[in-house]
Specification:
Helix content is 3%, strand content 44%. The protein is mostly beta strands and 117 residues long. Strands 3-8-5 form a three-stranded antiparallel beta sheet, with no helix packed on it. The longest helix is centred in the first third of the chain and has 4 residues, at 22-25. Keywords: Signal.
Length: 117
Amino acid sequence: MRKIKARWLWSGALGGALLCAPALLGLPDSSGAEAAVPARSPRVVSGPVSGLNAASVAKCPRGTRVLNGGYVSRGFRTTNGSLNDYVLRNAPLPNGSGWQAKQLAGRVQAYAVCTAR
């Protein structure tokens, strides 16, 4: 039996942390192999890590729509090490095809929970 690691997603829409089980959401386990899931199960996709002062967009696969989403923050730190950043955007794309996130100065990575249309 394979060990499955859980991943945390920050969910702005829920206002809290959402623990997503990789086997249920189609996330790869620590070996990088994708878990077999039913076709109608939700799927988590990630966008690229943004550049400084840029947005990250997680796009849902064709035939799916965004159900929820969130981001992982890689905040900007000043020269004395204090965190000096905040989230400007953490929301679904207007057409429902994914999730977007942007920070004032740091790097961010968007995640989208997608489900069949």
